[in-house]
């Protein structure tokens, strides 16, 4: 593996790739710090720009935004009690309390160190796991691929924060949106409603920007986002020796947990951070102190969310299956460049794989350098009032959508999805499963139709092939899992009725 | 007499689920009908409408499940105003109108003029800022974006009827 790593360094250390890596992590930290503009919206915005670059540089830059945002998100959680990113929600619990006790510096410091260690070690895990997994995936045919994508979408729905049914509904709707446009097998336009730009399918970027950018601004304006930056002077960013000692085990546990949870579809940074917090509280000698400013409550989740964001690259770079909306955008980028994503990526485009992986090491070092000395700058940026910030966010979104094809139809589509996203949030539906399914849809339909063509119309092929059957079985079990409490409830009710009689 | 007052609309979680489920049922029916018009083909040779038809059916089924679930009692499920602060919701509507007008007007007025007006409006009308902030914010914002995207990233913007 050593020659591949050296090759990766030779790709990542070119001036151009270093520059894009730096720009990516800088942008990532910025959007992580600024509430109301997440990594998905920021990546969508720069998506068009990256199309002018080589696929490696584009991937390096967009990946930098993703893991950079995890770093930046912790700053707002600690200083404002407002998570810059969903994955930093749990950091608020103890981080903000630490800041109130005059320990904002150590909280920010340990989150930067934890993020660095988690990010770096999980990249190592990615390097070790990806090649054998890609080799295994080479055995997959159309049926296995279809079943794997089904399982992926079921896991995303299963791990959704709200109702599983609603997440599934969004995933199915996303799959439908992905069918809009000319059918590639018979060349017939489908559901285009006479709109010319729909012939090539609905654009991923306008939908993502609408769902994650515009709708967020609309909700923030409606709710009246008010922020008060923590006034105390931040000094002594280096945590004490005791802080390091207390944080060492949570950091190591957070790395392992984060990495493996990040691999799961729908997992990624958010689930990793929440699970790490729960584990640390469970293992702690003083669980009752969690939430009052305990450094383990910052170190664990902050490490886990960064490890999780690296883990999420495993299914994308080995199977060609994105595990969250961010990975879906990265997949979109590779597909736009005509790169065949899947198990062969490692062999056919080793520059992309090793270049991106090694750039993540370099990016993590850059983030450590950026985050600690520049804390003062980030705090200043935090003070930009939202009424001045939101017009710029909207303008960013409009220009991002317009620049895709230089037409206003994409902008109108984005606005429509902004309104759709606003109502979906009001009615408690999540946008991430939709985006994931939208990207997977063409691949899934192709795998489905090709399977039926080769099996001469027999659906049995999905359950007679062992790998496909196993994947579908897991999906079915996950779908049935929510029924368990219902059965238990029925049983309890019956026994109560029997007792009464 | 006020016939419709958005501020008065209040729903609990169950009503929200029921309402949204019905919306999705309608969408599902539309997808299925559209798929039938595209032709489903045969199992051994699926047509262009086959996969969307399956998706439409799945969407309908899930919507009906959500609808059915919405009749289950939820403890403490109280009605909440859908638009709790109508004044702020109105601001949101202004933003939407501004977005649509900006998107439609960009080709006629050109990027520079339409962006100046768009930023100026948002800075003054939504959360009113001082004129100095409005003017400097909209001028700086417009030229910053114009410079970055037009000259650095080579993305051509429409010049409109005034030629700029």
Task: Describe the secondary structure blueprint for this structure.
The complex is a heterodimer of chains A (501) and B (164).
Chain A: H1 2-12, H2 15-33, H3 39-50, H4 55-80, H5 89-100, H6 104-137, H7 142-158, H8 164-179, E1 181-182, E2 189-190, H9 204-223, H10 241-263, H11 268-283, H12 296-311, H13 313-319, H14 325-336, H15 345-348, H16 350-371, H17 375-382, H18 386-405, H19 408-426, H20 432-454, H21 461-464, H22 466-480, H23 483-500
Antiparallel strand pairs in A: 1-2
Chain B: E1 10-11, H1 13-38, H2 50-69, E2 80-81, H3 86-109, H4 111-126, H5 131-152
Helix pairs in contact in B: 1-2, 3-4, 4-5
Characterization of this structure:
The complex is a heterodimer of chains A (501) and B (164). Chain A is mainly alpha-helical and 501 residues long. Chain A has one domain (2-500). Chain A has 23 helices and two strands. In chain A, strands 1-2 form a two-stranded antiparallel ribbon. In chain A, strand 1 and strand 2 form a beta hairpin. In chain A, helix 10 packs parallel to helix 12 (296-311). The longest helix of chain A has 34 residues, at 104-137. Chain B folds into two domains: 10-81; 86-152, no CATH class. Chain B has a two-stranded antiparallel ribbon with strand order 1-2. Chain B has helices at residues 13-38, 50-69, 86-109, 111-126, 131-152; strands spanning 10-11, 80-81. Chain B is built from five helices and two strands. By secondary structure, chain B is mostly helical. Chain B starts with 9 loop residues before the first strand and ends in a 12-residue tail after the last helix. At the A-B interface, helix 8, helix 9, helix 18, helix 19 and helix 20 of A face helix 1, helix 2, helix 3, helix 4 and helix 5 of B.
